[in-house]
Amino acid sequence: MGINVLIADDLKFIKLVLRELVEKAGFRVVGEASNGEEAIELYQDKRPDVVLMDITMPKVDGLTAMKEILKIDPEAKIIMCSALGQQSLIVQALQMGARDFIVKPFREERVVASIKKILDIE
Predict the structure, then answer these.
(1) pTM score, whole prediction
(2) Do the Cβ atoms of 83 and 70 come closer than 8 Å?
(3) Contact 41/51 with Cβ under 8 angstroms?
(4) Residue 28's beta-bridge partner residues?
(5) Which domains occur in the chain, in start order?
């Protein structure tokens, strides 16, 4: 399939879970960022097809990182991730250009369906 995914989350456990879900679905993880600053740098370097990005991260948060990535590439496909109870941030993320959002804790089928939906693949 050749779909490249960048994962940005400050929690190692979440990155591990997302990597397993993504790779099990046949996609390739091309980078892992621990904060928004790293996510922006990795996006510029790797140009992934999809970014799975946490909203709450140190240094540069997910919303700010998304804004910067969209300046670099207005067509960037970013799926925001957040914990329950962050509905206002989710709405804000979608208004700012996120293509979708997934809520933690993740359900495998929801993550995979979201990636497929925004890439328009079956």
Answers:
(1) 0.94
(2) no
(3) no
(4) 4
(5) 1-53+63-78+93-106 (3.40.50.2300)
User: Counting every residue, how long is the chain?
Assistant: 122
- Residue 57 tokens read as 């991260």
Q: Please report, for residues 4, 18, 37, 40, 86, the alpha-carbon distance to residue 60 in angstroms, rounded to integers and kept in the order given.
A: 23, 20, 6, 9, 17
pLDDT digits (tens, 9 = 90+) for 17-63: 999 999 999 999 999 999 999 999 999 999 999 999 999 999 999 99
Tokens of 91: 């709405």
The Cα 42–Cα 33 span in angstroms is: 7
pLDDT tens readout for residues 50-98: 999 999 999 999 999 999 999 999 999 999 998 866 678 888 899 999 9
Please name the residues in contact with 12: beta carbons below 8 A apart, sequence gap of 6 or more: none
